[in-house]
Amino acid sequence: MISDVSVTQLSDSAQNYLKIIFSLNEWSDEAVSPTVIAEKAGVKLSTVSGAMSKLRQQGLLNHAPYGAVSLTALGREYAVAMVRRHRLIETFLVQMLGYRWDQVHEEAEQLEHAVSDFMVQRIDELLGYPTRDPHGDPIPTAEGAISFPAATLLAQAKPGQKVRVERISDADSELLQYFSENGIIVGAQLNIATGEPFSDTLEVTANGEPTVIRLGARATEAVWVSPLDSTD
Questions:
Q1: How many other β-carbons are positioned within 10 Å of the β-carbon of residue 120?
Q2: How far is residue 177's CA from residue 85's CA, in Å, rounded to a whole number?
């Protein structure tokens, strides 16, 4: 359950770091290092190292020298609260203000620090308590519960499979635009075929359309899918 202590009591920097650490572990089992955090945050490693020390002293994360970084129970509560803010704002921007899904990430990065807990609650109510954001990421409830779809990377799909798109990474806005132009959005149904020999590509058709879309690793490693039954 999310603590009664509000994330607004943390600095913007602390909020960002906790959200980054949570997000890096959300769809991956890889250990989170200060180097990876620095790359994600776009800052120097020395800056991250100092920040990690402060967050550890606040009881928000575990970090041994030269070791991996992980959230404490309290740190995770704060991180989940920040993720909830970010994804609700993204959903609001798309559903209510007409933003495209490739436009919302940076906007939400700014707004998530400015809105109050009450506004977050009102946005949730206005949207009808959505469970997924425009990219398919789960939106935590007010109590901190998160329901993840049973999904794997499109890169792991087999030729002949029929799958449903469950989540698409929002890290690359140009890639999001390409997916949108080709009907590869959350909820889309894809038929998988083998690409050209030695091309390291998958060929897919989307939503029953005949157009073949060739996807390389950059694309297939940004999409998570779940298998469909033959009757779907």
A1: 19
A2: 24
